[in-house]
Structure formats: C-alpha cells, structure tokens
Amino acid sequence: MKKYRLLISLTVGKLIREGFVSRVWAQEEELNLPEYPPPSAGGGGGVLQLILAFLLVLAALWGFYYLLRRFGNQGPRRLASKYVSLIDFLPVKPNFSLYLFQVGERVILVAQTGNTVREIADFAPEDLSQNPSSTGAFSNYLDRFFGRKKESGE
Predict the structure, then answer these.
(1) What is the pTM of this model?
(2) C-alpha count within 13 angstroms, C-beta hemisphere, residue 15
(3) What is the spatial distance between Cα 149 and Cα 139, in angstroms, rounded to a whole number?
(4) How many CA atoms lie within 13 A of 141 on its CB side?
(5) Contacts of 97 (CB under 8 A, 6+ apart)
(6) Where are the alpha helices (DSSP H) in 19-113?
(7) Class of residue 100 by CB neighbours under 10 A (exposed 0-12, middle 13-18, buried 19+)
(8) β-bridge mates for residue 46, sequence order
(9) pLDDT of residue 152
(10) Environment class of residue 77 by beta-carbon count within 10 Å: exposed (0-12), middle (13-18) or buried (19+)?
C-alpha cells in the first residue's frame, strides 16, 4: 500500500512541476457574450411598466374574489327534507350547541358537543309556541325541563 502511495505522489508531483495540472485546471476560456447598452437613467418606462403590472395583479385578485363570492360555497345550505325540519338552533359555547328538530309529530331537542350528538328531550309540538319569533319560548321550555324556575319579579 505504501508503494502505491509513493508512486501516486511522485506522479502527481511530476505533473504539477511540468505545469500540466495547472494548465488543465486553471485554463481560462474567453466568453463571447453579446454587448447590451446600459439602462438609461432618464427613462420612465420601467416605472410605468411596474405600475401597469401592479394594476393587472389587482384586477386579477378582484376578479378571483368576485368569482368566489358569486359561485363559491355560500355557507351551509339547508337541504329539503319531507320528514325532518330544523325548528331552532342555539350556540351555547364554541363547542356546544342545541338543536330543536321536528320529525313527523315529534319535537326533539338534541345537544351537539364536538363529535358527540345526543338526544336530550322528546316532546309534543303543542309544547312550543306557534310564533317562533316570540322571545323566551324556547328558553322557558329549557328552564321548565331542567327544573329552573324564574322568579315572578324578573
């Protein structure tokens, strides 16, 4: 092994002394590149081009926004059903909501928490007020259901 190292180092040394290695590694090539004139300092064409490109990008963003608003998903859509209808919805906390469904002749109160959905109560439709915009009908039912009674002074 020592013999080969000595032979290699002598051969490389001889090549370096003769200048062969330096000629191969340090050989310079002349590049033939075309000549371009330097940019003129007084021309405003670059600034105008930059402004037009910016306006073009703004127009493309506005068009994309318009298309998304027009044809994109516009929130949850209610699907038509013959048997189930949503009567009311109450978001209690960010991860807790109450739903009031009517299924045929039954009214069902459902609680949804995260990935869990549970039925809380099942009652007759007569227990609800016929005017859904009346204030407190649903909350009065919840108070009666959970056993909380309101004071008459409130």
Answers:
(1) 0.36
(2) 12
(3) 11
(4) 21
(5) 89, 90, 91, 111, 112, 113
(6) 20-25, 45-71
(7) buried
(8) none
(9) 47
(10) exposed
Residue from 148, 149, 137 nearest 100 by CA: 137
Average pLDDT by stretches of 10, the chain with 154 residues: 66 65 58 76 74 95 89 63 85 89 89 90 76 62 70 47
Structure-block tokens of residue 79: 């699907």
Reduce the DSSP state of residue 112 to 3 states and report it: strand
C-alpha to C-alpha distance for 94 and 20, rounded to whole angstroms: 78
Q: What is the DSSP letter of 154?
A: -
What are the residues facing 91 on neighbouring strands?
Answer: 97
Q: Please name the helix (run of DSSP H) or strand (run of DSSP E) that holds residue 89, with its range, or none.
A: strand 84-93
